Amino acid sequence: MTANAGLLASDVPLAAAYDLALVDLDGVAYKGHLPIEHASASLAAARSGGMRLLFVTNNASREPEDVAGQLTGLDIPTDPDEVMTAAQACAALLTTRLDPGAKVLVVGGKGLVTAVQSAGFTVVESADDEPDAVAQGYAPEVGWAQLAEAAYAVGSGAWHVASNLDLSLPTARGFAPGNGALVGAVVSATGVTPDSAGKPSPTMYRLAVERARAHRPLVIGDRLDTDLGGARAGGYPGLHVLTGVSTARDAVLAVPGERPSFLGADLRALLEPHPAPVLADGWYVSGGAAAQVSGGELRLDGAGIDLVRAACAAAWAAVDAGEALDAAAVPELSA
């Protein structure tokens, strides 16, 4: 029997194996304004065992104090310095090229304004002020006038930096246009591709790890394209929990740059060991479940999160070996 290389193994609970959890917010710690079952208790147990938490979000419109307040209200006690926002990462990225006092046109909410000012830059509101850069983040109040000013400035040579490029934004009513969609309007007008500080860029993770002085960080997210893609890009192990956007089927079909290192139904996965699926007689076996790819078809036996792990192992190994996999025939899986 040989271990599958796609998923990592941990003989001890993840909360004991890693010293810092970089936790996404919506879809992991909460859903909209509602708690996610097991999130509070699992994070509290991880903390009590010595794991530190730092909440990392692509949201650039809110202040860290606001985020910490929401988490605390959901029985996840959090200090503002335990929050890293895309606004803070965006401001940090600006410092890599601009001198203190440089003019920055901010298109976004108060969280981005505060972060840019705190980084030592002068915030302006018009392209007529000849800004050195445009910092763009999502805020509900962003409209045509602000996007037009951004386009004028970028078209005149200002450096365009986006807090993130998420095309969609989860809300209580469904998915709405995210910052990436608004950035797309400026890109369409200028033809200039912006730099991005948010996930899947690993910038925020790197900054968070440096802030915490962690040695063994673990990324936790619900979106393969941002959370886990950023983990892969930064070389960090990632735990994909199935309480948000990306489904178990999405994980089975994930491209190599977005594959998680660990899989869990919810945050209770932090408190459990994670044996890797193993190959035996042509089947990848995890717990009481097994999966294989044969003739381009994913064959499954079992149920629950063990079946998801086995299915990922079988599908990834087949695809990486150049075998065909009929994606249309891959079913939805329940953890």
TrEMBL record:
<dbReference type="GO" id="GO:0016791">
    <property type="term" value="F:phosphatase activity"/>
</dbReference>
<protein>
    <submittedName>
        <fullName>Haloacid dehalogenase</fullName>
    </submittedName>
</protein>
<dbReference type="GO" id="GO:0005737">
    <property type="term" value="C:cytoplasm"/>
</dbReference>
<dbReference type="InterPro" id="IPR006357">
    <property type="entry name" value="HAD-SF_hydro_IIA"/>
</dbReference>
<dbReference type="Pfam" id="PF13344">
    <property type="entry name" value="Hydrolase_6"/>
</dbReference>
<dbReference type="InterPro" id="IPR036412">
    <property type="entry name" value="HAD-like_sf"/>
</dbReference>
<dbReference type="InterPro" id="IPR023214">
    <property type="entry name" value="HAD_sf"/>
</dbReference>
<dbReference type="Pfam" id="PF13242">
    <property type="entry name" value="Hydrolase_like"/>
</dbReference>
